[in-house]
Amino acid sequence: MARPNAPRAAAARLEAVFAARGWLSEQPPAFRALLVGAAVPLEAEPGQCLVRMDDDSAALYGIVSGAVGTEGGHRRQTALLGHVMRSGDWFGLKAAVAGGRQELTYRVLEPARLLCVPRARLAPLMREDPEVAIRVAQLGEFTSRLGAWIARDLLTPDAGRRLASVLLRVLGLGEVTPDDPQGFWLTHRQLGEMANLSRHHVGRKLAAFEAQGWIACGYNRIRLLDAEGLRGFAYGDEAG
Hints:
The chain is globular, with a radius of gyration of 19 Å. The termini are far apart. It has helices at about 5-20, 30-40, 95, 120-130, 130-155, 160-170, 190-195, 200-210, 225-235, and strands at about 40-45, 50, 60-70, 80-85, 90, 105-120, 185, 215-220, 220-225. By secondary structure, the chain is α+β, with helices and mostly antiparallel strands. Strands 1, 2, 3, 4, 5 and 6 form a 6-stranded antiparallel β-sheet that branches. A 3-stranded antiparallel β-sheet has the order 7-9-8. β3 and β4 form a beta hairpin. The chain folds into 2 domains: about 5-155, Jelly Rolls (Sandwich); about 155-235, Winged helix-like DNA-binding domain superfamily/Winged helix DNA-binding domain (Arc Repressor Mutant, subunit A), CATH 1.10.10.
């Protein structure tokens, strides 16, 4: 009996990750296969900066597992953590479309495996096939949606609902399974930064969410137990 081709099987597993959620999940299978085939695998450790603000834009990145934080703000402000990306998410569009200096910093928050598509590989594919260029550019629309989502979360006046909205977003809405059975790596400071709350306030709200059975907390760990319950609270009647 013939054995399956190992590289082909590995590529199929990677394509399955990106078919499950994120920008590539909205693209045709042939395009997913093309991008995965052009990518270089990469592993990164917590604290490592994959891209720093003002770095030259050199590659498009896709997250296979782990977590990457997005830090940014106006250049006259201190950069803050705004979002946490997880498996299926992509970033680095500027490298593909225009090049130039990056406007955001992307820092690894959990041990991560990624795919890296260097600009030197991606640019020729886009020049040779306008369809490839169009589909890559659609990542910009996906990113705009995320930006609007982040802004809307921060405009939620009730602190508990605001934190619940942020928590759902950065944990992947229940669509992502944590790599560690103890849960996702996430500190009170990080959540406070993303939800504009003090660490003390975050701690009290998380305890309330845990009492409701929506989450389970450990030391700098969070497991999402009832995404639908947390979602109902987060997006419910804000005047209630």
